[in-house]
Sequence to fold (146 residues):
Amino acid sequence: MTDDRRKEKVLHTRIPAALELQVKRLAEGLRVPVSNLVRNMIEDAITVATRMRDSVGQPSTTARRAAADHAELAAVYGWQPLTLNTTAPCARCGRSMVPGDDALLGLTDRPQAERLFLCLDCRPTPSPRRAPARKSSPRNPFAKEK
Ligand SMILES: [Zn+2]
Fold:
């Protein structure tokens, strides 16, 4: 008997009859023991919950990880505005963004590049020297002639 096997515990829990039926049918369909299916489902649920907590609840860790890679940011040739349907950290400030937030998606030529998002506060602004220098007021083409 392995060390891990000896440390295993039995966990009893009450579940609705309908849920028991669903679990048994699913296990049957997958041809795995009910206990293995339930154990795998619990492990998957914990993995997902942990990832969600890391991306939403602990922005400092995410912030450091997200803001660290300037090379990734330098590879972005454009920022596409979009509405998020996922949680994601801002690649500049690390702020956690949630589904429904307006954000900018970084476009790169690297097919394997990790997706980068910016929050709107970190949206790049045009450099001042690129602003049009007008000496006289421009003629408004939509103004009515008098
Ligand atoms: Zn930001």
Summary: Residues 90, 92-93, 95, 118-119, 121-122 surround zinc ion (CB under 6 Å). The mean pLDDT is 78.
